[in-house]
Each structure stands twice: as structure tokens, then as C-alpha cells.
Amino acid sequence: MQHYTRRFQDFIAEKRMKWTQQREAVVHALWTTEEHVTCEELAARLAAQGRRIGLATVYRNLRLLVDAGLAREFHSGGASVRYERYIEDDHHDHLICERCGNTVEFLDEKLESLQEELARRHDFRLTGHKMYLYGICNRCRSSS
């Protein structure tokens, strides 16, 4: 985690912004969760730890983490945006419930091979990809 905190500190310095305890707390909170969180969920976690950081501050810092390439954001149904930490070489895809936002990470080698084959077939050099598959999870279907 120190490596990523340092990278974020460098990014903040390049932007001629100040490194603050609030920024450090947001980075730490995001990097110590394995879940995909909304801005509100992350702010609630910080509050539960006794860190009173405003929602706007949490949002701004999550956006900065995305801009720095250290976090990813994605829409999980409705207006909800979720964030996850981004670690190089930790590729995975997502199944996202459009009702509750539940997100399942998966990696399928057959799917990866198919994507590479499609790129070759179209003479396209892949530099990366993101896949988000949307639907309704079993829990939400059962409660309908």
C-alpha cells in the first residue's frame, strides 16, 4: 500500500495540491477494502473509524485517485457509482446487479483468449480492456 500512497502523493504534488490527512485517510480506506464501494459507503466507513470527512472531500479524492490511475469507477445500476482500487496486473471483469449494485469479480481464461483472438482477427493491438456485465442477481430475483 505504501507504493500506491507514494504514487498518489507524487500525483498530488504534480497538481500543486497539498497532501492532507483527509487524502491519506481516503486512500487508506479504499486500499484496505476489497469491496467495490460508493462514495457514501466509504465516507460511512471513515466516520465509523472516527474520521469526520465530508462527502464532497471523499468524492474529490476518489476522483483524483481515478485520475491518477490508482482507482477505477463504474456504474453499478441506477445513478450509483462504485469505486475499486486499481492494482497493476490484477485484471478481472465484473458481473453487476442493476438493482442492488452487488458486484462479482471474475476472470475466465476462455473469455480472455476469445478477446485476444478477436483482436488478432481484426488486426487490433490490445492495450487493455474492462468488461462489465449487467443483470439481476439471484438475491434480487428471489425477492421479487
TrEMBL record:
One of its GO terms (cellular component) is cytosol. GO terms for molecular function: DNA-binding transcription factor activity; transcription cis-regulatory region binding; zinc ion binding. Binds 1 zinc ion per subunit. InterPro entries: FUR, Fur_C, WH-like_DNA-bd_sf, WH_DNA-bd_sf. The keyword Iron applies. Keywords: Cytoplasm, DNA-binding, Iron, Metal-binding, Repressor, Transcription, Transcription regulation, Zinc. Fe cation binds at residues 91, 93, 112, 129. Zn(2+) binds at residues 97, 100, 137, 140. Its cofactor is Zn(2+); Mn(2+); Fe(2+). GO terms for biological process: negative regulation of DNA-templated transcription; regulation of secondary metabolite biosynthetic process. It is found in: Cytoplasm. Homodimer. Belongs to the Fur family. This is Ferric uptake regulation protein.
